[in-house]
Protein 1
Amino acid sequence: MKAVAFDYVRASSVEDAVDALGDDNVKVLAGGQSLVPLLNMRLARPAVLVDINRLAELSYLRRDNGNLVIGALTRHRTVERSPLVYEDIPLLAEALKYVGHVSIRNRGTFGGSLAHADPAAELPAVCVALDASLLVQGHDGVREIAARDFFLGPHRTALKPSELLISVRVPVPPAETGYSVQELSPRGNDLALVGAFAAVTVESDGTCAQARIAVAGAGPTPIRAVAVEQALTGQALTDSTIAAAVAELSVDPPDSIHAPASYRREMASVLTRRAIRTAVSR
Ligand SMILES: Cc1cc2nc3c(=O)[nH]c(=O)nc-3n(C[C@H](O)[C@H](O)[C@H](O)COP(=O)(O)OP(=O)(O)OC[C@H]3O[C@@H](n4cnc5c(N)ncnc54)[C@H](O)[C@@H]3O)c2cc1C
């Protein structure tokens, strides 16, 4: 099938792009890895596409005051291979290895993945786990949205149709932080049935100083496992304390053609336990 006819606007600046945005009939085109299939299947029928691919000012990675700041148009592969990401937030580099295939990561963008808001996607879950915040620019200026408030439901976000996501600020965890991504998917590099993302900071005496955990594919949005984090903090990190903490995990996955809800719920616990144990061992 072919997309329905649409008008095409190539933005030459962020302001130009924002000026062209308005209502649901206008869509931003970033890497096109999610939008173009939706257009071709006629599941999306925008009247206008605003192409932001020439906006070099939205493609960057930089350190800023204890954060890593990532421009919305930065390609997945650039983030995955960045030495800054390896040094500061290896959880992000690890998560990106699970995002589709290399050819998809060469085109897909950091901002596109967040704006697309697939509940099983890796980057939204990492951003929720690490307390990232998103900068969006609209007709009235720039506002900041915490990742935990950004995802409202499957493919639904707090972004208004008139707003462009311009950058993402991810706080760099303390140096003594181990990390892990654990995923279950029908085939390698498919979207996950369930995924668990953990960053655990360990004190010199082996107790947990801080845990940041999120689960993907187990509800309408990425789920921050706050109760698990609280149960771990201050505890000696043994198999039994980890198992007791994971018992606090509360997720409500839907049934799907790939697996019933009960299986996904069980796997969310198994993968979360594995992610914490692996993070601690690192
Ligand atoms: C075969 C295949 C496998 C995949 N597997 C995975 C996977 O395992 N995990 C995963 O997470 N993803 C996967 N993806 C999706 C991939 O990560 C996409 O890159 C990502 O979802 C969308 O990014 P994009 O830059 O391509 O955005 P686009 O497709 O261009 O846009 C997606 C949506 O976001 C909006 N948008 C994009 N950028 C902005 C912005 N700056 N401001 C406001 N709105 C914006 C668009 O209007 C559109 O609604 C897969 C894709 C394919 C084709």
Note: Residues 177-281 form a domain with the Enolase-like; domain 1 fold (CATH 3.30.390.50).
Protein 2
Amino acid sequence: MIPGNRYIENIMLADHVGRGVPGDFVECGTWRGGMACGLMAVSEAAGNAPDRRFHFFDSFEGLPPADAEKDGTAAVDYQKDPDAPGHFNNCSADYEGFAALVHAQGVAPERIHIHRGWFQDTVGHYAGGPISVLRLDGDWYESTMTCLEALYPLVSPGGAIIIDDYDDWDGCSLAVHDYLSRHRLPARIHRTVLSRVAFLIKVAE
Ligand SMILES: C[S@@+](CC[C@H](N)C(=O)[O-])C[C@H]1O[C@@H](n2cnc3c(N)ncnc32)[C@H](O)[C@@H]1O
């Protein structure tokens, strides 16, 4: 689903941060697992975190309904139109297919944790270790905010929070700004060079 340069820059960023900051890799919004596998592969190739765990959160039932007020009419209209580019049946994905894919990457099964369900019911129960890379790819305001509230505090200093939909959906950028303001966090929005992937670096509190 992700264009080439953006995919590569996500991976380069995860590689850079993952080499320097110990902790688990977490993706919220995995869909079929394209980025999930890239995150696993780059961490394994670096070889410096043999105990790193990978946590993947998704409903595997697609996106929840967009909220007209928070996500905007573009999001609501997109969701209503099955022929919209990138709609993919409302981003639904097959759980068994995803599980088989991530378990075929050569990582010990006990290091792979798939959390199936709505973020509102799952991310608050995260029981993994400190987080090195937190990748948010849940499109909407509530999906983004729920993950930030539950998981941002668990990101290690120097860890990255990658915000896939910052430029794509108003609800996502609003959630990031609201979260930072609500918690009076002075974190900056950083950008990669080619595809301008948006990310935050956690500073020590
Ligand atoms: C754009 S897709 C993710 C693409 C994926 N990261 C990739 O690399 O191809 C968005 C995903 O977020 C999931 N999602 C969004 N909001 C969610 C929520 N509140 N709870 C659970 N899953 C959610 C959807 O099920 C969907 O699979």
Note: The longest helix spans residues 4-20.
Protein 3
Amino acid sequence: MLIVILFFLCLWLTALTVLWFWKKPLFIATWREPYFAETPVLIESDDWGPGGDYQAERLRNLLGSLATTRDSRGRCAVLTADVVLAVPDVAKIQDDADNRYFRKRLDTDFPEIFEAMRSGMTQGTFVPQLHGLEHLNGEAFAKLLGDGDSRLNDARAHADWWDWESLDSPLQGHYVDGSQLPTTPIAENKARDIVETAGRLFIEMFGQPTLTTVAPCYLWGDAIEACWSEQRITAIQTAGYRCLGRDGNGKYFADPTLIRCGERNRYDQVYLVRNVMFEPTDGKHTPDSAYAEALAAHRQALPLTISTHKYNFTRSDTQCRDSIAGLQRLLSRICTTLPHVRFLASPELAEWLNGNRNEITNRFNGETWQGLSQASQYRKVGAFLYRLYYRHPKLAWIAYLSGLIFPAWFVCATSTRDS
Ligand SMILES: [Zn+2]
């Protein structure tokens, strides 16, 4: 018996030594990531902003449902809404002899929706975050409109109100010109102008600067990050990668292809990562699959960042009702099965990652909550092993073949229970 134990101890020690020299930078980088003692839960929802008046009621219903779900501190669930601040004023662009671009603003031209947002802010269920000044490239849009491009026929036919979400996908990029493929990044001076205008309008509308942002269609590059940095945007929301553009076939190309929560760019902006997909209107990413992703994120002591786009709530009545009910079911299940759930908005998580750790402040209604705590060393070791296991199949196989999976499993199981 003693010989068997000694054999395995020697085998594991040898395997760990080899792994250390083989994967040292990976282990160190993974260990330096943030690990949470509590379970931060965020809801990231893209594309809110100008739309049909009926969307105000849909938003109120969604926020009403979030108000009924409470975390371990009694805070209600909060939607981090990625807001588009304006849409093209199609009639005005058409009337202009020089085809200049004009916009309709969210606050003044869509007052019902804006009012629903404002009351959600006061209630604590709605925190706005900049998505884009528009969800398209204004200059390219105006040019295509003047050129009679058939992709804008629908906009021409309904100049008084036309929904940008019906636009061809390559034309929905904001910081690139997608009127021709491959896409081209917009000029730096134009990018600076757009981001500066967006920053100013955001403060005019919501009373606070946007500390965080997510680019329309996940399309942005270094020059845009520089512009965001000039506007004091300190964190960038991602889906775990950054797309620079689309190639001649419309296919996205990414650089970097992989981003982890807490990583920083050259401007010291911190990246946030969505890791739970809830898009039931697509017929996939259901409450059950989202819950499985939430469990995996919790095991790794990561924030649970749920991605759910506006269209889940703004298409048919039935789809909206199902999406609201599904989201509520998902949140209730998370709250009843995972320990110490903390509802947060993305700028609050960003502030925590940027060192403001004592208090969580919702800057849009002034509420404060106790700061988040970091995982204990033992919990961190378990979550670290889970991160390696989930992300690196080769390491998982080595663990199975060498038998290291047994002690690793013991640490993971006991440390998660401990959290
Ligand atoms: Zn979007």
Note: The two ends are 34 Å apart (CA to CA).
Protein 4
Amino acid sequence: MEVKKFTLITGASMGIGKAFAFECASRGMNLLLIALPDDGLEETKKQINLRFSVEIITLAIDLRDHEAVRSLYDYCIQQNLVVNMLINNAGMGAGGKFEEISHEIYTDMLHLNIRALTMLTYHFLPMLKQHAPAFILNMSSMEANFPLPYKSVYTGTKNFVYAFSLALREELSHCNVKVSVLCPGPVLTNSDGLKRINAVGNRAKMIMLMPAEVAKIGVNNLLKGQGIVVPGKINWTIVKLMKLFPTGLKMKLLERLFRVYTDH
Ligand SMILES: NC(=O)c1ccc[n+]([C@@H]2O[C@H](COP(=O)([O-])OP(=O)(O)OC[C@H]3O[C@@H](n4cnc5c(N)ncnc54)[C@H](OP(=O)(O)O)[C@@H]3O)[C@@H](O)[C@H]2O)c1
């Protein structure tokens, strides 16, 4: 009997994660969708089911919790759910002067952006290997390529995701589990995001993308086996150009540009 395979997407109730869910459903993939307990997940499921006939399981889990990832893995084993694609999308950020953001926010950010992503990869890897060809897409950010003043911890977490993904990709190159790291610039996901984009001004608007575009580019490149994915031609060019700048000068320019975050 053929086993039913699922794509596990974290943070699937809104924003880019929801767009990933639509993108994967449009390609006939069954979905295991994770987000915090609220109505968003069920709404996403309903909307997808109106357009695509794939199986969708939703689970409300707080991935900041220490035991959450292990419980999610145990649930999959108990229910005989096979995951052959893992999209580690859930993440949170905060902008402002380092010392003015609460330590609770930093703790949540580190737990969600780093620990949950790492442990999901760790627990599901044997299953992915067993059901190869399999895929892992880790959500970093364009900012992983240049540290941003006033978003220092967020940028640090995305740097972790970037480095971890590239290193793991090489380790797994012999076993048909493809790893990609997605590095979007600004994406218009919610009203807070719009405020941040407006604060930085026209430069941010020029490189802004919609969640559906990012999800499509992400999944396309993951399936093609691309390692680093920077959606958008301008964004890709900026990343390349930034590498040519001396670090000191680059950091001074970025500090000027992102000082606006201290007013919001
Ligand atoms: N938006 C951008 O401009 C941008 C740019 C580059 C990279 N990224 C990265 O892309 C990813 C998605 O960003 P987004 O803007 O789409 O985010 P978003 O709109 O804020 O959505 C976040 C998603 O993650 C879920 N989530 C939050 N905390 C969680 C937790 N503790 N446990 C489980 N699920 C949790 C949310 O669930 P609820 O709905 O239940 O709260 C929601 O589904 C993040 O990793 C972000 O860093 C975003």
Note: The mean pLDDT is 94.
